[in-house]
Protein 1
Amino acid sequence: MSSADTTQTDTIKKQAQELHTKVYLEKGYITADEIDDDGIFNDEYADRSVYLFAENSFRDSTCRYIKADKKDGIMSLPTTKNFSVDPDILRDAAGVDRLSNIRPRDVIEVSALASVQHGDINQGKRGELDATRLLYARVLRDSLDQGHKLWVLNTHENLVRHLEILLGKEQIHRLGDTKDYMGSPTVPVAINPQEVVRTALEDETPMGDMKRQYLSETLQGVSDRHLDKKMLQLLESHGIAYERSPLLKRTLRHRKAIAYAAIAGYTAARAIPVAHIDGFEGNVGVFFAIDFATSFPYTWGLVEVVTARSPAKRIAGGAVAAGSFAAPYVYFWAEGNDYPAWVNGVVGGIVGVAGIMAVNGIRKDKQLEKRLEKDDGLTDLDIEAK
């Protein structure tokens, strides 16, 4: 059950927060002074959290996931704010080329896991799923519906090992060192929910059968809006029905095709006016071909500048990007004479703006890396005090 269900929002949130407060108070993670007049522990993330609650014959469990805010994005989440995080591992886990490609709506933090046993676990109904597993299955469902690329969380080593067994060790990306947080040692990790579901559906081992048992029920009716063709085929092969989005939304799912179309459109938009510029004596088709062909190595070069770990690869990427971007304009100037001053000004402006945008993008990524790594001269104590 989830507080995202508009018919039960208040009820589920109240049950989840009551259980969360009870367990955290008993374990000493919070104090009585932090509880409000309603007997609930509320923190700064409560208003942008979705709470989940699950129960069976022997256990009640709860957790929540915190949405990143639009202003600070991934840096608005507890783990990235309070832990030193390896940006390369984070980027790889999310499956993106640049950290700045992780949009606020792409990432959530799973937190506040709490559980209370109220019966003999050995007397539970045979085959009845652990309530904690049901919670994670529901968060996976929400993540597929909403297109989340990344979960971040900080949790105890015991739960990390449990998740490695449950989800697969390769799915748990350790982001940094263990640190005391809320009075308890926890380790920061990242999980890609789409990869968790994909590998679970492809797993033919007995553990895979168990994973599919709790996924098959939870994922019934999942939206196809953010799912690729391979994922949809996996759902179909395991009898998991999904909800088909309108045609336009399905088309927008093919991001690479859209990106290539956008590049082609942008190239055409630049090539067409060239034919009407006084002084240009070259072939518009050749200009278009050069512009279009070099747009792809230009993109590759920028990615290398941002993501390559060795200086040599970054330099090579920068050289490829600069050369690719300049190539059509070299042809433009080589095949023309006596261009009006405004033409040279416009072309120079395009080159200048593109260069500024590229440098600015790289600068933003580097700043985000430093914030994640806490590479600002602050100690852990300084960070906790902020």
Protein 2
Amino acid sequence: MKLWGGRFTKDSNRLTEEFNSSIAIDGRMYKQDIMGSIAHADMLGKQGIITPREKECIINALEEILRELEAGRLIFTEAAEDVHMNIETFLIDKIGETGKKLHTGRSRNDQVALDIRMYMREEIKKIYFLLLDLMETILALAYEHAETIMPGYTHLQKAQPISLGHYLMAYFEMLRRDLERLNDCYKRINYMPLGAGALAGTGFDLDREYVKEALNFECITRNSLDAVSDRDFAIEFCSWASILMMHLSRWTEEIVLWSTEEFAFIELDDAYTTGSSIMPQKKNPDLAELIRGKTGRVYGDLINLLVIMKGLPLAYNKDMQEDKEALFDAVDTVNKCLTVFIPMLKTASFHAENMSNAAEQGFTNATDFADYLVNKGVAFRTAHEIVGQAVLYCLQRNISLNDIELQVYKEFSSLIEEDIYKYIETKECLDRRKVAGGTASFNVIKAVKDSKLWLKELQKKYDEI
């Protein structure tokens, strides 16, 4: 007989059990479910709702169940539906009638809300440290390549020279925002829902603040209806994960491009690439491509949750059982992608000479030529037209701006002097951009140092919490 089967006259059909069961998905929350149950039992004892002996009996049995599950001596069954009912069944099997008292003042509705929040807190902490590792890797590489010149692109066309360090710090800034958003997401997860009951709270004198402290939550939920029907925090995490994966996808797209013979800016370590089953010469950036591909999977998880929740009336509905598959998939995918991306980046080799040679081509110094004329008193739009004519001249002759003879330069503008050649050297173009946030090597070094201090302060606050 089911733990809820008192009003039923027959057992569930096997198809009902299989279709209704979620243990294959939510079984991973067994530890959170047991820890939440221990805190609940402790509070019931404190409030005199169960006796001290019953409290100790329940807690000891739950701790034993945890050890047995982790040792593989207990097996979940579909017949018990989910992780909550499985563990309660184990408890009753161990201690009989006393075990049936654990669920006093509690519903699976507030119980599952508690378990998911506890589980997500732990997973967010794991992701947090992966992000820190990736960001520290970026800072080390950016410092190393503060003066490594490469072409910057717009529309995937060469635009202006930048440093590889500046490029890497652009992704650091994306991850900085991701980390801040993750910390903000954690705040809204860190609300304790137990005590909301099925939807209306409970008539028992529960001490919710006591459970909140025992489980290290920041606050208790303020409305019992909202507490059991809220999955905003899950949607918010999947939204956060989608933004992070979008950033990783943009980066891996560039890694794939840079790995081609046409670019030859980067070479991935053999340990993080694969070969072809038919073409012996191939070295494929499959991990980067998979991360790019898995981004769509996380987007799907977000859409899945939004569609599940969009038409649900208050309070709990069985549709919400489907939340965990999407949420856990997003968690797992982000974890896996970060776990392989970090060592892939750490072991990659950047071809500085190829990058520098590429920056010398494509007229990346054209804007600086225009700026040169502006500094001589020419209006920018006029300077823009003059430089455009000079670029066309070079294209017709297959030469660069650096190759134009001074007498020819003077035909474009009498203001051009010998100093033009120094002014449009690629390194000069890069180092001249000292404006705050610009690509000058000095700025990159400063950005790296400032970011290291920011990470250090962030870690200090995290440790205090």
